[in-house]
């Protein structure tokens, strides 16, 4: 509930800031799926570390020695320009180009963690709302990502933390954040409306 109320309060004043905070909270859940030294290097060494990610319909990660070669364009990354690291969601392919399948026969997907300075940005975020999130498009070309810098989100067998926080999926964290942003925006708009209704001085009058 604290997470919800903090985001809701911020959204009353600035929806973009609240949105980025809620997204960063969900993305940070990935720390529980990383080896401890890697998690510390990403989130612990830099107190201002922020992870952001988004969808990528034209992407792939090809297995290679020690990790993956990643290529693609990710349509946007929520809050990406404010982040220090990005998550690139990818379908996995074997070195011979065939899909890597899981035990159910579906193609495996993993999220590759890369520094923001390693991607190519394209300025596409010309939106009416939430412009301050700076959720631009990014690309990688044949970029090597170490195996220990990749995760499968919400895959219980890879979660290395047993605390109660991590029994909640990242999706739930996002849902709480989305609701908080919406409620905060609505409350802020209502507050502004009430202020105008109560205090606006009509034309020709000297007081409300």
Write a brief caption for the model.
This protein is α+β, with helices and mostly antiparallel strands and 208 residues long. It has four helices and eight strands.
Tell me what the structure shows.
The protein has 208 residues and is of the alpha+beta class. A hairpin with a 2-residue loop joins strand 2 and strand 3. Helices cover 31% and strands 24% of the residues. The protein is built from four helices and eight strands, in the order H-H-H-E-E-E-E-E-E-E-E-H. Strands 1, 2, 3, 4, 5, 6, 7 and 8 form an eight-stranded mixed beta sheet that branches. The mean pLDDT is 93. The protein starts with a helix and ends in a 9-residue tail after the last helix. The chain has two domains: 63 residues, no CATH class; 104 residues, Butyryl-CoA Dehydrogenase, subunit A, domain 2 (Beta Barrel).
């Amino acid at each position: 509930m604290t997470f919800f109320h903090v985001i809701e309060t911020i959204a009353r004043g600035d929806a973009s800031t609240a949105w980025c905070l809620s997204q960063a909270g969900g993305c940070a859940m990935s720390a529980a799926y990383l080896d401890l030294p890697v998690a510390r290097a990403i989130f612990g060494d830099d107190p201002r570390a922020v992870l952001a990610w988004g969808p990528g319909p034209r992407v792939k990660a090809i297995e290679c020695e020690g990790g993956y070669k990643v290529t693609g364009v990710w349509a946007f990354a929520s809050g990406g320009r404010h982040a220090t690291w990005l998550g690139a969601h990818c379908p996995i392919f074997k070195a011979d180009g065939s899909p890597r399948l899981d035990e159910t026969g579906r193609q495996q997907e993993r999220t590759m963690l890369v520094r923001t300075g390693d991607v190519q940005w394209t300025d596409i975020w010309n939106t009416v709302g939430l412009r301050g999130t700076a959720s631009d498009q990014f690309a990688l070309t044949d970029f090597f990502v170490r195996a220990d810098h990749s995760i499968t989100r919400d895959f219980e067998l890879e979660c290395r933390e047993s605390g109660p926080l991590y029994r909640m999926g990242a999706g739930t964290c996002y849902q709480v954040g989305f609701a908080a942003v919406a409620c905060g925006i609505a409350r802020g708009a209502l507050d502004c409306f009430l202020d105008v209704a109560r205090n606006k001085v009509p034309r020709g009058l000297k007081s409300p």
